[in-house]
Amino acid sequence: MATTSDALAGFIVDPNPGGTKLYNANANSNVSAFIANVGSGGPTINVQTTGNSQTGAGFAIIKPSDSLLTQVVFTPTDPTLFTAFNFRGQIAPTGYTGIIKLTIVDLSDIHFDFTFTGVAGPNSDFASIGVYSPDFDTIKSATLWADAGESFKTVKQIQFTERPPTTTKVPEPFTMSLFGAGLAGMAALRRRRKSNSGAAAA
User: In Å, what is the CA distance from 132 to each residue of 7, 69, 70, 138, 177?
Assistant: First the structure.
């Protein structure tokens, strides 16, 4: 079950998560930050963890190394590329409540906060958790964290979905009003030019 504290429609829970998996060109050991790709050689994602982490190379999982893994932040280098995000993993047994939180920040710095309850575990894989934008909003960052007192045993099968190249985000009302004002200004200018040319001909 998931709830969101934001009523905006920019991002909603994805009932059928999918996408391209995050790929590590190299193994990482005892780090709190590293760079990965969406697909082998694809767009880059900056990854930061609260608590040092380790990964293998390839489509590998993120695991804690010398401390608890409580939060992972994924920041695309290009914030205009991705319209969906999902992940799987395991919650560690200590303090287990089955709650995971996810915050998506979009290109306009609007926050979409999701709380997922009843997440399977501990020490067993939970099903893919994901969100997407039906109006092609894009992801500036995706932050996931365990509930207070919990931590992740693993975070894996992280996937992003690119915005189709022929689509753009649906304009917001303010953008539409600016667009309308621009059209009205162009129409007034055209009328003025027509009036001036008519006067010159007379």
Answer: 14, 25, 23, 9, 26
Q: Are 63 and 69 in contact (CB under 8 A)?
A: yes
DSSP three-state, residue 24: strand
Q: Tens digit of pLDDT for each residue in 21-43?
A: 999 999 999 999 999 999 999 99
Cα–Cα separations (whole angstroms), residue 160 to 17, 20, 190: 9, 5, 46
Residue 10 phi, psi (nearest 5): -60, -45
Q: Which residue do the tokens 């067993």 mark?
A: 124
What pTM does this model have?
A: 0.80
Reported as type and span, the H/E element at residue 186 is helix 173-201
Q: What is the pLDDT of residues 114-157, one digit of tens each?
A: 999 999 999 999 999 999 999 999 999 999 999 999 999 999 99
Whether the CA torsion 2, 91, 157, 26 is positive or negative: it is positive
Question: In angstroms, rounded to a whole number, what is the distance separating the alpha carbons of residues 12 and 1?
Answer: 13
Alpha-carbon span 176 to 184, nearest angstrom: 12
Residue 173 confidence (pLDDT) above 90: no
